[in-house]
Backbone:
């Protein structure tokens, strides 16, 4: 039952505010984390079996009536579902201790679950309008989650995020409307076929421009990035991890790739455009990150930079490039999730996010320091961690395609990345322990547990990268590459 | 045809007024008027359900909510607004008209495809049987909004906890 990926988190989210009246803490903690665990186990076990015989479109029978709830599960969707479930489980475990002082846990988890349901729905959608709808579901939940602290900065960041995100949704909706007007249908395949027969060049180009602007805003590619460095640091740490680790990728990159590869069709111009945006994001955001003093803000800029890498790989459009892009998406989700969670641990312990005020924290918080180091090195691309392999695949793909300048810039941006992550390490964890941090203690058990799980995953993916690539990433990349081949064979 | 053009011009004018007017009550009324005109346009173009929803929900219900909110809030200090809006708006409008001209021409050429849509059928049939997931999605969005309101306006209960 593919529908369970959307229905289960929604139902639990509906029950939670009521159960929250009975038990303020324990029940919401247990129930929501069990839901995340269920989603992960279900994706890994049942999902694999369901798509063993190829992609499925599942139709639901509701009270004996067949209703049109058509959800499509293929290699790419399953890969994304697994990534979503994995990071949300860790963020959920982290929230058990972290959200203690925020209050209203049941509401928090309910919004969190709705956001996950929205992302799952978007991943499983087979139709352009559904992409827009579930984009909004995840977005509406995330506005509230960014503002969850209710402070001035949080509310301001959330409002900024809301305004820019609404513009993005409007762009997407206009694009969908024009495509519907052109082809008279909304399903991915039907629209793809319809566009084939029409040869409406300029109008399709307009739709592509609208989608690039809309999904580019959602993915925070430069120059559409203005909201992200405010929104992501303001959210509670587990939500920052979800937003930076997943939401920008699901509602930005995944939706863009799905529509470009299997509906509109990748053209050389679009490919160059995406690669250009990707490389600008990777370099400029890395330079901006260097100047930051707020640890979460630095991580937020780093997200823009890494999203640039992913778009560079996927935009290249060769099978190897897509493989590298998707693998980097997965590695970045794990590592950035880990880094935002550990920044939450630091904030809980010290009460500050300013890197200049920290120093020597490794002596008091060894677990946090160690896991943060693993995440930093993974994103910076140091072997044998996951991020190294995915960046290597992207750079190999660029070289293979003869795009030398891009490959060189990608390597240089990676050096910049290493630089600012080492800055975090030096300023926060190494050096002399300041007097005022004498009495701080390691983060509580569940917070540490979540970061340790993610650090082990970063390490595991790096060591067993061949197996991960073969069993998870390759089937996902194949879906997008086949989209390209199908377009070529249809005469595009 | 001339009525159609009049309605369209009215729609644009009311929308512009809704954005540019400083007085919130007047802006809300202009928004309601714009959506009323849009509703009439929907009716005339053969989309009676869309027209009915537009008028009852946007022109009616949402205007009431706006009025209520404005009436309940106090007038605060003047917020300095950037003059950029008045300059940028005409520019964007011209840009939009240019883009619209290209697209609409293409759409009108290709409009033949529309009647062949698989989504044809009675309104209720389409909504419940063919676009069920859209309904689920809509319910999700409203649900997310309700949860967001619960979460963002929880201040008082939090203070009680403390």
Residues:
């Amino acid at each position: 039952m593919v529908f369970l990926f959307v229905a289960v988190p929604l139902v639990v989210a509906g029950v939670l505010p009521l159960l929250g009246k009975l038990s303020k803490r324990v029940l919401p903690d247990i129930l929501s984390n069990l839901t995340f665990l269920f989603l992960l186990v279900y994706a890994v076990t049942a999902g694999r079996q369901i798509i063993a015989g190829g992609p499925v479109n599942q139709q639901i029978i509701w009270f004996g009536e067949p209703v049109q709830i058509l959800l499509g599960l293929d290699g790419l969707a399953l890969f994304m579902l697994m990534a979503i479930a994995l990071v949300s489980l860790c963020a959920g475990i982290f929230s058990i201790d972290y959200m203690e002082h925020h209050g209203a846990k049941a509401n928090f988890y309910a919004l969190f679950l709705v956001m996950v349901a929205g992302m799952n729905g978007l991943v499983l959608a087979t139709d352009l309008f559904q992409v827009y709808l579930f984009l909004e579901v995840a977005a509406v939940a995330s506005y509230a989650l960014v503002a969850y602290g209710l402070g001035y900065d949080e509310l301001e960041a959330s409002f900024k995020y809301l305004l820019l995100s609404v513009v993005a949704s409007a762009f997407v909706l206009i694009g969908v409307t024009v495509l519907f007007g052109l082809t008279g249908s909304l399903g991915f395949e039907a629209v793809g076929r319809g566009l084939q027969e029409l040869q409406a060049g300029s109008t399709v180009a307009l739709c592509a421009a609208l989608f690039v602007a809309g999904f580019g805003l959602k993915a925070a590619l430069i120059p559409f990035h203005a909201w992200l460095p405010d929104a992501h640091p303001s959210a509670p740490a587990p939500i920052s991890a979800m937003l930076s680790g997943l939401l920008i990728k699901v509602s930005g990159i995944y939706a863009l790739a799905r529509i470009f590869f299997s509906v509109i069709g990748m053209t050389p111009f679009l490919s160059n455009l995406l690669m250009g945006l990707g490389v600008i994001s990777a370099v400029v955001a890395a330079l901006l990150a260097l100047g930051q003093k707020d640890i979460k803000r630095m991580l937020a800029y780093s997200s823009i930079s890494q999203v640039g890498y992913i778009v560079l790989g996927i935009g290249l459009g060769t099978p190897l490039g897509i493989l590298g892009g998707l693998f980097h998406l997965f590695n970045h989700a794990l590592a950035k999730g880990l880094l935002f969670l550990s920044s939450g641990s630091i904030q809980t312990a010290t009460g500050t996010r300013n890197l200049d005020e920290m120093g020597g924290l490794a002596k008091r918080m060894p677990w946090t320091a160690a896991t943060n180091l693993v995440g930093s090195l993974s994103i910076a691309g140091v072997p044998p961690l996951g991020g190294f392999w995915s960046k290597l695949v992207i750079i190999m793909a660029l070289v293979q395609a003869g795009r030398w300048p891009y490959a060189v810039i990608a390597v240089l941006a990676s050096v910049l990345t290493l630089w600012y992550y080492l800055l975090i390490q030096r300023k926060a964890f190494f050096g002399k322990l300041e007097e005022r941090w004498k009495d701080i203690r390691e983060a509580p058990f569940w917070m540490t547990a979540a970061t340790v799980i993610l650090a082990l995953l970063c390490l595991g993916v790096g060591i067993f990268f061949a197996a991960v690539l073969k069993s998870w990433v390759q089937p996902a990349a194949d879906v997008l590459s086949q989209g390209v081949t199908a377009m070529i064979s249809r005469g595009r | 045809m001339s009525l159609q053009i009049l309605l369209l011009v009215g729609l644009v004018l009311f929308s512009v007024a809704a954005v540019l007017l400083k007085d919130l009550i007047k802006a809300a009324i202009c928004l309601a008027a714009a959506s009323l005109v849009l509703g009439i346009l929907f009716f005339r173009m053969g989309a009676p359900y869309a027209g009915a929803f537009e008028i009852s929900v946007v022109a009616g219900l949402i205007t009431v909510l706006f009025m209520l909110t404005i009436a309940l809030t106090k007038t605060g200090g003047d917020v300095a607004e950037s003059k950029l809006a008045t300059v940028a708006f005409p520019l964007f409008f011209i840009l939009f008209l240019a883009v619209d001209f290209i697209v609409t021409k293409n759409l009108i050429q290709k409009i033949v495809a529309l009647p062949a849509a698989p989504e044809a059928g009675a309104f209720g049939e389409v909504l419940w049987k063919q676009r069920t997931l859209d309904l689920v999605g809509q319910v999700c969005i409203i649900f997310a909004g309700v949860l967001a309101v619960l979460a963002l306006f929880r201040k008082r209960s939090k203070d009680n906890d403390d």
Q: What stands out?
A: Chain A has one domain: 4-489. Chain A touches chain B through 55 residues (CB under 8 Å). The first strand of chain A starts at residue 56 and ends at 62.
